[in-house]
Specification:
With 310 residues, the chain is mainly alpha-helical. The protein has one domain. The protein contains 16 helices and no strands. The N terminus and C terminus are likely disordered.
């Protein structure tokens, strides 16, 4: 069972910062993810293959987490079950990258990210089906707003979608929802630095098996590979994974999904500013609706502190 109980929220109340800190950290994780899409596009403009951009994300993050682990100590010794969960989270995260980037070879980016953002309803649905933690009324309104805004901001146009791209996009959303759901099951007393390092190492192993970089080593010595890959790793792995590990165990799944969905508005805004992409008025309206949905989903904080939230 996920620990979204009175005891868990009593723990939050005893925290010197409390739930607002966890909400801010989860929001920052989503914003950090929003930087990745424009950074990836800039890397591709510099002719770095997507496979190597994906692989090059991992080393800088592993170094950061390993250094953080050596500077801190865990309150508990992780059990083998904890290690399995951490490995599963890393594998799921790698699966998100594999399926999402692959879907973009079939779909326009705006539609690909719309499909990825179906995690906003998949996450609370999975929590409800598996653990009977159903969203509150405000959170349901927030989910509906995020869905509506996502379709506007994604700029879906008429026409049929390639079945393979559609399936891969939905698969990336499901894997991302499972990643967030499993993140809430990790023992919060285990050092987030340690948890992140184990998860990333397992993710790197899976990505390496999938892409087999040893068949194309010329990009391993190209500086642009590591410049763009390291920037992407900082904002796609290091910051969001650490902040998600800290905050997700303290927040209900529906609220976690709402806050993580801040990725899309950031991606749209930065695509317009950094890449000079044309953004229609409907896309800006969609961004505004998504922000409203995030706010609506975050409203019942006082209630969450005193009762079982889901």
């Amino acid at each position: 069972m996920l620990g979204f109980s009175k005891t868990r929220y009593a723990h939050c109340q005893g925290d010197p910062f409390g739930m607002p800190l966890y909400i801010i950290l989860m929001l920052m994780a989503g914003i950090s993810y929003g930087l990745v899409t424009p950074l990836a596009k800039l890397g591709i403009v510099h002719d770095v293959p997507v496979a190597w951009l994906t692989l090059a994300q991992y080393p800088v993050s592993l170094i950061i987490f390993h250094f953080g682990k050596t500077m801190t100590s865990s309150k508990v010794i992780p059990r083998w079950q904890d290690h399995l969960t951490m490995i599963a989270i890393g594998a799921l995260g790698a699966g998100v990258s594999l399926t999402y980037y692959r879907s973009l070879t079939f779909l326009p980016g705006s539609i690909g990210i719309v499909l990825l953002f179906q995690f906003t309803w998949m996450l609370p649905l999975l929590s409800g089906l598996l653990h009977h933690h159903w969203p509150t009324r405000c959170q349901r309104y927030g989910i509906a707003a995020v869905l509506a805004g996502t379709f506007l901001a994604g700029g879906i146009v008429r026409g049929s979608l390639p079945l393979e791209g559609f399936a891969l996009g939905l698969a990336s959303a499901l894997l991302y929802a499972l990643t967030l759901l499993l993140s809430g099951r990790i023992n919060a007393a285990i050092s987030p630095w340690y948890r992140s390092e184990i998860s990333l190492a397992s993710g790197l192993l899976l990505i390496s098996i999938a892409y087999q970089p040893w068949h194309n080593l010329q990009w391993a010595i190209d500086p642009s590979t590591w410049v763009w890959g390291s920037l992407m790793g900082l904002f796609s792995q290091a910051i969001p994974l650490l902040f998600t590990y800290i905050s997700a165990p303290q927040l209900p799944p529906a609220l976690t999904g709402m806050l993580a969905s801040s990725e899309l508005p950031v991606a749209v805004i930065l695509s317009a500013v950094w890449l000079n992409e044309t953004v229609s008025i409907w896309r800006w309206i969609g961004v505004a609706i998504i922000l409203a949905g995030i706010l609506i989903g975050s409203v019942p904080l006082k209630r969450l502190k005193h009762t079982s939230p889901l």
